[in-house]
Amino acid sequence: MKDRIIQLLEQATATLKADGTLPADLSVNIQVDRTKDRSHGDYATNLAMMLAKPAQKKPRELAEQLIAALPADDSISKAEIAGPGFINFFQADDLLGKQLAAALTDPRLGVAAASPAQTVVIDYSGPNLAKEMHVGHLRSTIIGDAVARTVEFLGHKVVRQNHVGDWGTQFGMLLALFEELPGDAGQQLSDLEAFYRDAKKRFDASEEFAQRARALVVKLQSGDPDCLALWKRFNDISLSHCFEVYERLGVNLSRADVRGESAYNNMLADVVAELEKQGLLSESEGARCVFLEQFRNKDGDPLPVIVQKNDGGFLYATSDLAALRYRQHQLGANRMLYFVDQRQALHFQQVFEVARRAGFVHADTDLVHMGFGTMNGPDGKPFKTRDGGTVKLIDLLNEAEQRALALVKEKNPELDPATLEHIARHVGIGAVKYADLSKSRQSDYIFNFDQMLSFDGNTAPYLMYAWTRIASIFRKAELNPLELRGDINPQADQEIELGNHLVQFADVLQQVADKGMPHLLCSYLYELAGLFSAFYEHCPVLSVSDEAIRHSRLCLAAVTARTLKQGLTLLGIDTLERM
Ligand code: ARG
């Protein structure tokens, strides 16, 4: 609807430009918003106020002229001036019912597929291997996954890239420790985490060990077959832990999406050579760097982006530059989204700028660092175990499921253990994911099991249960909401409000995709569940005697159920027939 009004306003401004009312070269950015108070119309624009000054007109006068120039349209019953020069649009009375009936029969729920479709590279999760995934990896993995699903649903081609840290100095330590062990050391790798801890201890305690580890990194990175074979073994073990976590989380990342730092190894020398060729490189204390005027430290001295150390080694930034180039030229990206901790903001500003100057990416390719804040414990400090250690993600998920099991058991003592466990698994994981997704990604948040597992408030259990309740209406009526067809005539206020909210689904998804902010979808669904409750309380569905009203309300409930389920699916949260 918004898009339709924008089109109409575009036509109206074109008409006014053609007849000389508006300057022909005036650039126009049309903004249309939904109104808070429906009695003054459903949508409003401040266009006349924006254009009044450059057009040298009074805002109300220009608004009048814009309204006169609007082409007639079935979806608008009237447009009128309000206040200092707003234009308010009233949508046609039968429009809402028509839109809802169309959504009912549309597998995409009235969400148009993007045209033209873009190729969107989404970089998320990206844990450093050798250690197991810890809570610090949760946000990138979950938020990135929800945005990837949403962008895909909107019809774009999504290429997921899991930029794992699989090439760093940690592997030198592992190789060095492995060298010291007797023949069947392979055994010890089953607990790679413990092996890593031992290696780190040795590294910190012994200079001889540390030197050997550093030499082994160089040997590995220069392609020694024995080192590489062992490195591959470490990686396989470590990745299998990651995939265990992804599976538990229900995250859409596969082995094919893994393209870690090591994948760019053979391109790094060329990246540096290209920077050199373009005159972007300088040398500073033997290291090769790019200096950009706009990045300075607090003393005002320029900050370098180091791409090669004085010992010849390459850096994190160098692999990211190679990755940018690869994503542009091999993957054909129109947009690249990076879901990485906010603390890496400067890194991304720098590599994006270097990549642009070096021509590694096209000028019109959108590069966005979608940063996020920290997940904190109850004390407001980064989430840790009681003794101050990092919390393994798998342990956190286990605890969530255990707590969910206790809750679900209490609510449904009559269910058998297998069913209880099934429900607990989905509630526990859903709760952890939703708690993260529902907060604006830019802020820090406090992780709190009790809150996220509550059946009240903006939580996964509340929304999952809302869906289950609607599903039970259809079970009772012996109807399949997917097969229901027919007219929808919202009459009561609660029906109209619910309907008006439902038809904004496409708008919300678009915002989630543009801003990389799934919390907007969470708020939308939470509000949807509330509006449905109000509707269900005031408008009897199964017990109403008028057949046409009963059918219309059932159809409205069906669109609600499907929107709720689709929304939760895009967030990566499962729904349950019973809970
Ligand atoms: N492995 C990195 C870390 O743990 C995150 C990778 C993010 N992606 C990227 N292209 N740099 O900090």
What's the topology here?
Layout: H1 2-18, E1 32-34, E2 43-45, H2 47-55, H3 59-69, E3 76-82, E4 86-91, H4 95-105, E5 119-123, H5 138-153, E6 157-161, H6 170-180, H7 192-205, H8 207-221, H9 225-249, H10 268-277, E7 281-284, E8 287-296, E9 302-308, H11 316-329, E10 335-338, H12 345-357, E11 366-369, E12 375-376, H13 393-411, H14 417-437, E13 445-446, H15 449-452, H16 460-477, H17 493-502, H18 505-515, H19 519-538, H20 547-571
Parallel strand pairs: 5-6, 5-10, 10-11, 12-13
Antiparallel strand pairs: 1-2, 2-4, 3-4, 7-8, 8-9
Helix pairs in contact: 1-3, 2-3, 4-20, 5-18, 6-7, 6-8, 7-8, 8-9, 11-12, 13-14, 16-19, 16-20, 17-19, 17-20, 18-19, 19-20
Q: Low-confidence spans: pLDDT under 50, at least 5 residues? A: none
Name every ligand kind in the structure.
arginine
Strand content: 5-15%
Task: State the share of residues found in helices, binned by percent.
Answer: 40-55%
Task: Supply Rg.
Answer: 28 Å
State the oligomer.
single chain
Inertia-based shape: flat
The end-to-end distance, rounded to whole angstroms, is: 37 Å
Estimate the mean pLDDT confidence: 94
Q: Give the strand tally.
A: 13
Mind telling me which CATH architecture of the domain at 119-162 and 260-369 this is?
A: 3-Layer(aba) Sandwich
CATH superfamily of the domain at 119-162 and 260-369: HUPs
CATH class of the domain at 119-162 and 260-369: Alpha Beta
